[in-house]
Amino acid sequence: MVPLPNAQVTVRAPAKVNLLLEVGPRRDDGFHDLVTVFQALSLYEEVTAAPAAEFSVTVEGVDGTDVADVPLDGTNLALRAARLLAERGGVDEAVALHVRKGVPVAGGMAGGSADAAAALVACDALWGLHAGLDALAELGAELGSDVPFGLHGRTAVGTGRGTRLAPVLTDATFSWVLVPGARGLSTPAVYAECDRLRAAGQVPAPTAQAGDESRLRAVEAALRSGDPAQLGAALANDLQAPACSLAPELAGTLAAGCAAGALAGVVSGSGPTVALLAASAAEAERIAGELAAELPGGARVRTATGPVPGARVLEAVAVPGHRRDGGGR
Ligand code: C5P
Questions:
Q1: Which fold has domain 8-169+311-317?
Q2: Ligand 1 site, residue 187, Cβ cutoff 6 A
Q3: What local confidence, expressed as pLDDT, does residue 5 receive?
Q4: What 8-state DSSP symbol labels residue 71?
Q5: Where are the domains of the chain?
Q6: Contact 69, 105 (CB under 8 A)
Q7: How sure is the predictor about 117, in pLDDT bands with cuts at 50, 70 and 90?
Q8: pLDDT tens for residues 122-144?
């Protein structure tokens, strides 16, 4: 029998915020073409994979993250990722996965996608597949539109469903305050509300396919300048109006963030997490403290910085007597 190269692997993958989210018309397959700019933030999911007789997953919340709504059955994204990689990689092994969640659940910050990205990297290392980032990203796109970005991390422009990525180089680090919503929002429901509001003429028609790249150019220029005030002025999310339509309290959170001194605020992805951009890390801490005291559920307010790298191995425990990376050669 060929020995397993690793006895246990732990991988960390980041949350994301969309600095820009332009949503095109609904496609025939139900998805929407996007022009988006992702930034990976220092809120993390950690997935540990260990060999087991059958596939299973357990979940634990860290820093007060509520995990009550995370499925533990076959729909869990980390589990689906592990199974998909086993199937495509021709691996006849199962894993027990343990997920430590630091990203708000159903919050528009791609926590579930980060789990899938982390599980792909962890199982790839555990099984010694060396599949490579591009192949894992291709598999990841089958699991969710944000999974490829969870693998790549940093800052990137996403097009198509959001899975076609081009890195954006920026030297600057930005400081964020994240305010999770009181309840999760379903991503399909927010996209459907966007379609409804557009059909009713209540929000502007799609811009993503109109060839108008001015919002993208403004975000890219702000990232190059490193000036948080310039980035704050360029933040834009076509899903913000639909998210606020479904969860009207978000408008109050955005206003409270700006009143507390944030440069700008935006709903993160499909929400309901509100991302507030601060002038500095110290400002982010001050604003977070103020909002924690002021808002209902304020204990869940977090600070983070971005960009950070994508899914990375934190720890790989070698099988005694075997090299970690080479199956004991
Ligand atoms: O790919 P993901 O699982 O994140 O998508 C969840 C849902 O969000 C999709 O079923 C679809 O309703 C919506 N979506 C979309 N267009 C995208 C990404 C997601 O309409 N580009």
A1: Ribosomal Protein S5; domain 2 (3.30.230)
A2: yes
A3: 58
A4: -
A5: 8-169+311-317, 174-306
A6: yes
A7: very high
A8: 999 999 999 999 999 999 999 99
